[in-house]
Structure formats: structure tokens, C-alpha cells
Amino acid sequence: MEDKEKVFNPATTTEFTSESNWGLGADDSDNVNLFFSSNRDSNILSEFGWNFQPEQLNRIGPEDRLDLAGGGSGSLWFQERSGLSGSIQPVDKATSDASASASNNPSVSSSSSDDPTEKSTGSIAETPSTNKSKTKKGQKRIRQPRFAFMTKTEVDNLEDGYRWRKYGQKAVKNSPFPRSYYRCTNSKCTVKKRVERSSEDPTIVITTYEGQHCHHTIGFPRGGVIGHEAGFASHLVPSNPMSQFYYPLSQLPRETSLTSIPESDHYHQQAGTEAGGSSTVIMHSETNPQSAAPAHIHQGLLGDIVPPGMRNR
DNA sequence: CGAGTTTGACCAGCGC
DNA sequence: GCGCTGGTCAAACTCG
To answer: Are A168 and A181 within 8 A, CB to CB?
Structure first.
């Protein structure tokens, strides 16, 4: 509500939000199945702070998309959000843009550590009141680059190789399902994620990541596999250690369904507050509802995305 | 006892 | 200005 993220069904509409700075250009309508299939996407991503290498872009291009879809494993919805891209942000977002850019880089020590996350992880010495007033009154909330994806799974919290601490839960308007807030347990890491179920299809879990991990995964419980999330984060965050997890979609096991969404259930999420989130890109692969993999195969894990040996240690 | 979760309260941003 | 909603905090609680 606060933010201008809006329902966006790439298959049926090219409508963007009123302040949508989606950056997809004029040919959005042609890209129902867009999935990192062009240099334009690369530009978008780099604009958001996700830096793809050309090779990687190629490797997860249209062929991969088709392969995934052709495998009958369903479709992947991939949404990227960002509070960066100062040039396309509303004026009042400029401040947070700058700060977000800085805090986005773990190596950058921030005098601008007004990020609530940084505050909570790094300013333990402060009294709660001081702490609060500093971060909440003085400055606007900082948004880090985000991306979201939907996963058909019965498990809310997917294994992604990182450890998360839940710090909040909220009821979501127009949804019977609460939204959970997690942050990375690594004290130096400011990454957060939100997990919520689609109100339209309770079997779909919408996971939104914010920020980039500045550390390696902690390992992989339950058999040492990496999850969907890490798999996709690795596509988007080659600058961090997870990049070594890069794994071309074309090599995904056929039975690996990242997200299986019937065409009638295209993304209608009422997005939450995304103060800086005026830019959203949704990448969508072919949908094949008939052959959608059963949700139970996920078991909250997508480790099978990454073949043995590619795991991080 | 430490780590993680729950949950009510608080705050900021936005729309009206 | 007010109310609504999302996001976060932090004390209390649970669990291993």
C-alpha cells in the first residue's frame, strides 16, 4: 500500500504502476516470457545494482527458459525490486538511494548506517530509545535492492543455505496469511527477507529478498543442498560469494519446479510497503499448468537446482 | 544458557 | 491532520 508496487500480470497486461519505473522499455508487451533474454535486461539489472556478466546472461537466456518450461515443471516468476536507481526514483527517495548504494556494498563502512538492519545488528551498545530515535526519526527507511520470486511449496521457509532469524510477523491486508520477516543471522549481513503466502493460491510462497549477503552460506542442512533462493540469488548477485553457485537453468533437473503457477493464478499479490520500490521487473517463464510438478516435491528445499560439487562451503 | 520465535507496541509513510 | 498499513523493535517465551 505504501509502495507503488502493483499487481502485474506479464501474461495479460503490460500495465505498470503510475510511478512505475520498470525500465523495461517500450517492448514490454512482447516479453510475456521475458527471462533475462536480452541486453536490456542486463541493463535493468545493473541499474538495480545486480551486475550480470554477459556470459551469465546468455546462459540463462531464452533457451534456458524454454527448457525449464518444456520440462513441464511449471513456471518461474521472478520479480526484482529496487530502491536504487536514483535517477528514476521520486525525488524524496534520493537520500535513501545514496545510502542504499553504500550499504549495499558490505565493504563500505557506512556513516549512513541508518538502515534499521544495520542498526539492529551493529549498534548493540545503544539504548533502545536512542537506537530507535536515531533510525526512525532522523532518516528515511533505506531500501536495498530486492528481488522476489514465487515458489509453489507447502513449506513457508525455504532452505537457501543461509540462516535466518525471524524478527517479525504481520497480518497482511486482504490476505488470510501473515507475512514473516527474517534477517540473516550473520551479524555483518544486512540481508532481509519476507515470506508470505499468496492469498490467491495458498500453495504459493512469495519470498522477497532485500540486500546482498556479504558472506558465504553457512552450509546446507538436511543433506547439504542449496535451495531455490540461493540458486536464484546466485544468478543475481555474482559480486558476492554466492556467485559461485551460478547454475544455468537449462541444467535444472526436469523435476525441479521452481514455481508452478496456473495461468489463471498470475501474480496478483498486493505488494507490501516498498518505499523505494518503484521499479519492478518481472521475469516470467512459460507456464504449463498441466505439467506443474506437485508441490510436495519441494519439501521446502530446492537444493536439487545445484548439482553436487557446486555447493559452497 | 544461548539461539530462535512469538507477539504486542511503536513508528514512518502514504492516501484521503 | 487523521487513519491505515507495512516494517521493525524488544520483552517474553520456547526449545535444544
So the answer is: yes
Q: Please give the Cα distance from A260 to A203 (Å, whole number).
A: 9
* A37 vs A178, residue with greater confidence: A178
> Amino acid identity, residue A29?
S
Q: What are phi and psi of A115, to 5 degrees?
A: -60, 125
Whether the predicted pLDDT of A164 surpasses 80? yes
- Residues A312, A193, A12: CA angle, nearest 5 degrees: 105
pLDDT averaged over chain A?
A: 46
CA A183, CA A207: separation in Å to the nearest integer?
A: 13
Q: How far is CA A75 from the centre of its chain?
A: 16
The total of other beta-carbon atoms located within 10 Å of residue A230's CB is: 27
Task: State whether the beta carbon of A137 lies below 7 angstroms from any atom of strand B.
Answer: yes
- Burial pattern A273-308, b for ≥16 Cβ within 10 A else e, equals ebbbbbbbbbbbbbbbeeebbebebbebbbbbbbee
Q: Are strands A164-171 and A178-184 parallel, antiparallel or unpaired?
A: antiparallel
Q: CA A275, C1' C6: Å apart?
A: 10
Distance A168 CA to B15 C1' (A): 25
pLDDT tens profile A85-103: 333 333 333 333 333 333 3
At a 7 A CB cut-off, the residues bordering strand C are A 1-3, 116-117, 119-120, 128-129, 131-132, 135, 141, 167-173, 179, 181, 192, 194, 270, 272-274
SS3 A148: strand
A187/A184 Cα distance (integer angstroms): 8
Neighbours of A18 (CB within 10 A): 8
pLDDT digits (tens, 9 = 90+) for A185-240: 877 777 888 888 887 777 888 888 887 777 766 554 444 444 444 444 444 443 33
